């Protein structure tokens, strides 16, 4: 909003809000798919989670309509998990229940300028085991995809950013490579976590922040220097007090 008030370039506040509204973004991204859109339903009361989860089918995912960094996102494996979720969201009145997307997961970094979206690269997201599948335990690259699949990933990212009205600056999109093609998890009007950007610098020689700064200031792009054939990271989760 400050950028708009001062007449400075940048992503409109409405685009940021559109990317944060997970229900609206899901509905919009479904319009990009002629085959198998993602099943979802809005939930106005936590008490309705078991009914709506059964309607969508297990496994499914419940999450707040608005949020970032996976806050409040839960994987429901069955009716028992749905009943437990009722107690986890007592004060939340705007939830989203959607089908669980199965397949390899990608984290995609892109840079937009004047409404043109350039996909800079992606890394494979390594999920946790079982009920922790929604929590990343690491990332790695490169991710070799067939030409058709890679084109579909780029098309989905560009389509989602277009629908949200994202015009300038970096973005971070998470998606799943389902048997029916890539499907959106969520997207944000900011770059991924620093460790993910470090992977792109190491593996692709792509400095997302330097590119974004150069684009914003009208400077020449920094030279790309690939430095590693493979790059990866793992997160270690220690018990409290360790």
Give a verbal description of the structure.
The chain is built from 8 helices and 10 strands. It is an alpha+beta fold and 242 residues long. The chain folds into 2 domains: 2-25 and 102-234, D-amino Acid Aminotransferase, Chain A, domain 1; 40-99, Dna Ligase, domain 1. The protein is globular and about 55 Å long. It starts with a helix and ends in an 8-residue tail after the last strand. The relative contact order is 0.16. The model has no long low-confidence stretch (mean pLDDT 90).
- Poorly predicted residue ranges: none
SSE pattern: HHHEHEEHEEEEHEEHHE
Kindly report the CATH topology of the largest domain. D-amino Acid Aminotransferase, Chain A, domain 1
CATH evolutionary superfamily of the largest domain: ATP-grasp fold, B domain
CATH class of the largest domain: Alpha Beta
User: What's the rounded overall pLDDT mean?
Assistant: 90
**Total DSSP helices:** 8
Structural class: alpha+beta
Number of beta-strand segments: 10
Portion in beta strands: 25-35%
The gross shape turns out to be globular
In summary, what is this structure?
This protein has 242 residues and is α+β, with helices and mostly antiparallel strands.
Map the helices and strands.
Layout: H1 2-6, H2 13-20, H3 22-30, E1 40-43, H4 49-56, E2 60-64, E3 74-76, H5 79-88, E4 95-99, E5 105-113, E6 116-127, E7 136-141, H6 147-164, E8 169-178, E9 181-188, H7 194-203, H8 208-217, E10 231-234
Antiparallel strand pairs: 1-4, 2-3, 2-4, 5-6, 5-8, 6-7, 7-10, 8-9
Give keywords:
single chain; 242 residues; alpha+beta; D-amino Acid Aminotransferase, Chain A, domain 1; Dna Ligase, domain 1; 2 domains; six-stranded antiparallel beta sheet; 8 helices; 32% helix
């Amino acid at each position: 909003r400050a950028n708009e008030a001062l007449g400075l370039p940048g992503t409109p506040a409405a685009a940021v809000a559109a990317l944060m509204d997970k229900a609206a973004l899901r509905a919009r991204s479904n319009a990009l798919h002629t085959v198998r859109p993602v099943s979802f339903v809005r939930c106005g009361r936590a008490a309705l989670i078991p009914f709506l989860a059964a309607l969508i089918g297990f496994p499914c995912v419940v999450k707040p309509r608005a949020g970032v960094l996976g806050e409040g996102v839960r994987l429901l494996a069955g009716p028992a998990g749905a009943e437990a979720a009722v107690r986890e969201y007592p004060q939340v009145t705007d939830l989203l229940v959607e089908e669980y997307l199965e397949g390899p997961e990608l984290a995609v970094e892109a840079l937009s300028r004047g409404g043109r979206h350039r996909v800079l690269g992606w890394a494979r997201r390594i999920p946790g085991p079982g009920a922790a599948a929604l929590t990343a335990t690491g990332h790695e690259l490169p991710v070799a995809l067939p030409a058709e699949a890679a084109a579909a990933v780029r098309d989905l990212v560009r389509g989602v950013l277009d629908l949200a009205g994202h015009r300038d600056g970096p973005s971070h999109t998470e998606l799943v490579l389902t048997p029916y093609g890539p499907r959106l998890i969520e997207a944000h009007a900011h770059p991924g976590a620093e460790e993910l950007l470090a992977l792109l610098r190491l593996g692709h020689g792509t400095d997302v922040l330097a590119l974004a700064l150069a684009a914003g200031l009208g400077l020449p792009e920094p030279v790309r220097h690939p430095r590693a054939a493979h790059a990866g990271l793992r997160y270690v989760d220690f018990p409290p007090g360790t």
